[in-house]
Every structure is written in structure tokens, then in C-alpha cells.
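Readers of this paper often ask what the protein records in our data store actually look like. Below, we set out a record of this kind in full and without editing:
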Amino acid sequence: MTASFRAVPVALALLMSAAPAAHAATMVIGGGQAESCYKEADSGRASQYGLAICTGALEGDPLTRVDRAATFVNRGVIYLQRRDGKLALADLESALRLAPEIGEVHVNRGAALVMLGRYAEGEAALSRGIEIGSKQPQDAYFNRAIARESLGDLKGAYRDYVEAQRLAPEWTAPKVELARFSVSRPGE
């Protein structure tokens, strides 16, 4: 039996309404400004100070390829938290060139693309992040649900919201989104 899905339109602002959708999950090992950059991104403060710390790390810290990519991700996350999708995407593209094997690069790049209204590209990036493995897969599923819903794939969006809720049962954002859906079976 096939189910039909209907949902009230989602507001793009929900992409970043809950902090987990913008958390950096890639930690820089070591110390210095790169570690401080990670802490700033993880704090959710989205401060100019955090951006300066991250920029300082990228310009002055001796970083491995992976740590440089992680620092671009962390600065990109701060830009996402500040709702600056263009600058976030630029940093996440830099991270992608350095370390395409890191799931968080794809997940955060996908969030930036969705924020910019580039839903098909965002869905593909988020799917790649899920495939590679993300340390916070609930974020990837939630943001991919937004992309899918925006592309008219209500069934896919519903499944992704359900998965985000399953992975993070204490997180209210997926529950709020799921409440907008009504699922019915033919003949009901």
C-alpha cells in the first residue's frame, strides 16, 4: 500500500533554528588558535572574535591537511550560525578540496547550500555526508529533509525527519516538523 504525504510548507529559517544544524563535529587535535576556533564554533556564539581566531589559525598555525580542513569547517560553521551562507560555502569548498573524505565537510557544505536555496546540490552534499559517515547524522538528516521538502519530495522529507528524531530523540526540531505532516493510506 502506498502512503500519501502532505505537509505545511517549511520556512527556510528552520535550517538554522536549532543549534545542532550548525555544529562542527570535526575537532582539531593539538592546540593553538585552531583548537580555540573549534571551541568557538562549538559554542554557538557566532562571534566576530571566533571568526578572527579561526582566520588567525588558518593564516598562522602550522596545520596538517586535515586540521586545516577542519578549521575551514569550523569557521564555516560560525558563518552558518551568522546566517552568511556565501562565506560559509566558500570555507566549506576550501575544506572539501583539502579533505573530501570527512563527512562533516559535506554535511556543513550541504547546510550552506540549502541556506542559499540550492536545494538539489544541498541534498546531494548531505547525502554524501551521510554516506561517508557524520559524527552528527541527525543534523544531516534534518537539513536533507528541508532540501527534499523544498524540492517537493515529501515522502523523502518525512523519512529524513523521522530518522533525525530517531537519532536525537531529545531534539525538538524534528518533532515540530513531523507535526506538520499528515500521512494517509489510499482508501482512508
